[in-house]
Amino acid sequence: MTERKGPDVNLLGRIVPLATCIVLAACAPQAEGPGWPGEMWPVSTAEAEGVDPAAIDSLIADIDAGRYGLIDQFLLIRNGRVIADRRWDHGARYAELLAAQEDTADHQYNYDHPSWHPYYRDTDLHSLQSVTKSVTSVAFGIAVDEGHIPGVEASAWPWFEAYGVDLADPRRAVTTLEDFLTMRSGIDWAVPGQTYEDEAHPTAVLEASDRWIDYVVAQPVGTDPGTRFDYNDGVSVLLGKVVRGATGQRLDAWAEERLFRPIGIDEYYWKIAPDGEVDSEGGLYLSTHDLARVGYLMLRGGEWDGRQIVSRQWVEASTSPVVPDVAPDNDRPDTGYGYQWWVPVHEDGETRVFAGNGYGGQFIHIVPEHDLISVFNGWTLHEQPELFSWTALQDRILPAIVPSP
Fold this sequence. Notes:
Blueprint: H1 53-64, E1 71-78, E2 81-87, H2 91-99, E3 126-127, H3 131-145, H4 170-173, H5 177-181, H6 202-208, H7 212-217, H8 233-247, H9 251-260, E4 269-270, E5 284-286, H10 288-299, E6 303-304, E7 307-308, H11 312-318, E8 336-337, E9 342-347, E10 350-358, E11 362-367, E12 372-378, H12 389-397
Antiparallel strand pairs: 1-2, 1-12, 3-5, 4-5, 6-7, 8-9, 9-10, 10-11, 11-12
Helix pairs in contact: 3-8, 3-9
């Protein structure tokens, strides 16, 4: 049975079963050339797709042993074919963690309640947290492509004039949509070192509030826009509101029509804030296989089996290191940022890896050079893993790619 919705009612659609071929070594290799998923992803083997199977088996064994924390599913796709797909059931552990917390209420922002996290109410829909931002960016780009939004250089704050924004404020007057997209809005948000566990963190205050847009708009613009990267969940909320104002459709309805359905996603859940707006900073749930569809769309330059869903120009711009180094004071390798997409590896302005990252351990990494997508869906809020899944791509997966003869 399928539950549908109108534009202002959330959707929980048809449950699509997981691939039956989980032991991938037993699956027949596919034909040469990239594949396109239909209802199911094509399946091959690591060896057939040029990846050392022993290295992938070793990675899975370490996840089995808990070295990466609580990973719910690991999916690896090369050349459009699944070459590794493993799920773990941590339901008993999540119940234990809830029992240890003071807040055991069943509400959508209780991150320990198993009705909401990591899966939505016993479905295969996994919380994506801030990977939501990257999906929102794709939907935003489609609105730009169709002319509903004039472009990223357009002024940002006039979209919120109805909320009492002072458009004469010099900093707000020069803020562009690109400043919002690249987390250089200038809006004051968290102080350095402040974590989400702090009840005073602006995101925690936002999620506990009744009027999300009003709360974000009321924050001062304390830094010149476009000058400094400052990660801000509230800005992503504003981007979702811009899509609604521009298209006349709430973000979930717009994404369903223009993005999800065209690439074969017919099941999702999206949290709705008390003011009736979509939680575009962290409220989307997709299955692991369907999140990979979004990554595959981006890997293919916005095309889906012969149809251009979002322009190649948007894909290239949003996954480029517009911000070359998000933390210039650190000695770590430069991590870049595009339009709500992370660019953890880039050279001379060229993107090598782009990614969506979510609070609690959701990661999708796309590596165009190797036609590869990796997805880790986890929920490691209270654990201290020995290894981190966001490093598994660099440390375990990419070295396993067999050089072409």
